[in-house]
């Protein structure tokens, strides 16, 4: 099969086209012919940092976590799937799991679900990692109807789905962004757009008397802003906690801090079936018209994976960057 591999790690490392043996599905796996795969921030981090991250695969590496495609073979012990089924999932590209930057990926059947019928392969490939992350974060925060929710980075990969899911749950949603493009996306989802470059945190908190839940997809130093925006005894969810930060503001408000790291089931083979269950529920919501992925306007083929990574890292993309295989 054709695949794009990394022979070295680093910011300047290049992807190389390679011919590799077609994988065979192990027990509990299905072999999927990949039709599309999307690029996530964690993919670019693995490429740049390599073995400084404990989840990076050995070289030569085939990255790519998200995918949508068609089942070609069904491994021993797999039920509920058949050859020809259209599926999507997040099942490779780290540790010893081959990624989706290839024509085929052997995927744990617990980590996939039927593809939303109303989406193209390209659209479906944009959903798994960010969709699961948004779902888990809102669930951890106990978001429910009538609550006030702030999503930091509401036009980003995780953020745009967190906004839509929170709205579906009946929450009153505000979301930060900047520039006409991002603010328009947020407003289009029925949320109140907040230009973080023009409006100080104190002003929009004063206008909304604090938020019951803050979903921070920016993280790092921005967590301080999330603590400031949260109401007393509120929940703060972050997907980026790789930093040292003063937790005193969280202490004096009695905040609950939730760190969402959705790769844990893949890394440790713990409760992988939960991801499949979330994807199945997400698929139904998509087909019901409650949620829709946002895709960047630029398109990329498998041999253009380097350009796709650069597009995501440029900060110019609005929506998920997707590679068609």
Description:
The protein has 325 residues and is of the alpha/beta class. The chain has 2 domains: 188 residues, Medium-chain alcohol dehydrogenases, catalytic domain (Quinone Oxidoreductase, Chain A, domain 1, Alpha-Beta Complex); 130 residues, Rossmann fold (3-Layer(aba) Sandwich). Helix content is 31%, strand content 26%. The strands form 3 sheets. Strands 3, 4, 5, 6, 7, 14 and 15 form a 7-stranded mixed β-sheet that branches. α3 crosses α4 and α3 crosses α10. The chain is globular, with a radius of gyration of 19 Å. The model has no long low-confidence stretch (mean pLDDT 95). It is an enzyme of class 1 (oxidoreductase). Pfam families: ADH_N (PF08240), ADH_zinc_N_2 (PF13602). Its EC number is 1.1.1.1. This is Alcohol dehydrogenase.
């Amino acid at each position: 099969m054709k695949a794009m591999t990394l022979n070295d790690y680093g910011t300047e490392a290049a992807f190389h086209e390679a011919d590799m043996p077609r994988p065979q599905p192990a027990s509990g796996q299905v072999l999927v012919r990949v039709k599309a795969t999307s690029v996530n921030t964690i993919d670019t981090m693995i490429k740049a940092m390599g073995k400084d991250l404990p989840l990076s695969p050995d070289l030569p590496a085939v990255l790519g976590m998200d995918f949508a495609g068609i089942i070609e073979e069904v491994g021993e012990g797999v039920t509920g799937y058949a050859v020809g089924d259209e599926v999507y999932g997040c099942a490779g590209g780290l540790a010893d799991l081959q990624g989706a930057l290839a024509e085929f990926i052997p995927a744990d059947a617990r980590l996939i679900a039927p593809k939303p019928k109303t989406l193209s392969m390209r659209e479906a490939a944009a959903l798994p990692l960010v969709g699961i992350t948004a779902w888990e974060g809102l669930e951890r925060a106990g978001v429910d109807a009538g609550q006030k929710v702030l999503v930091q980075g509401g036009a980003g990969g995780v953020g745009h789905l967190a906004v839509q899911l929170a709205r579906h749950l009946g929450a009153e949603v505000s979301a930060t962004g900047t520039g006409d493009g991002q603010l328009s996306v947020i407003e289009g989802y029925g949320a109140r757009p907040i230009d973080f470059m023009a409006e100080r945190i104190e002003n929009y908190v004063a206008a909304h008397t604090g938020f019951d839940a803050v979903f921070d997809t920016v993280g790092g130093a921005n967590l301080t802003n999330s603590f400031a925006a949260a109401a007393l005894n509120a929940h703060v969810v972050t997907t980026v906690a790789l930093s040292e930060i003063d937790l005193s503001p969280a202490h004096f408000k009695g905040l609950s801090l939730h760190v969402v790291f959705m790769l844990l089931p893949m890394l440790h083979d713990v409760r992988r079936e939960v991801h499949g269950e979330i994807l199945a529920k997400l698929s139904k919501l998509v087909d019901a018209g409650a949620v829709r992925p946002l895709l960047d306007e630029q398109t990329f083929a498998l041999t253009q994976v380097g350009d796709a990574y650069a597009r995501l890292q440029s900060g110019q993309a609005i929506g998920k960057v997707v590679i068609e295989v």
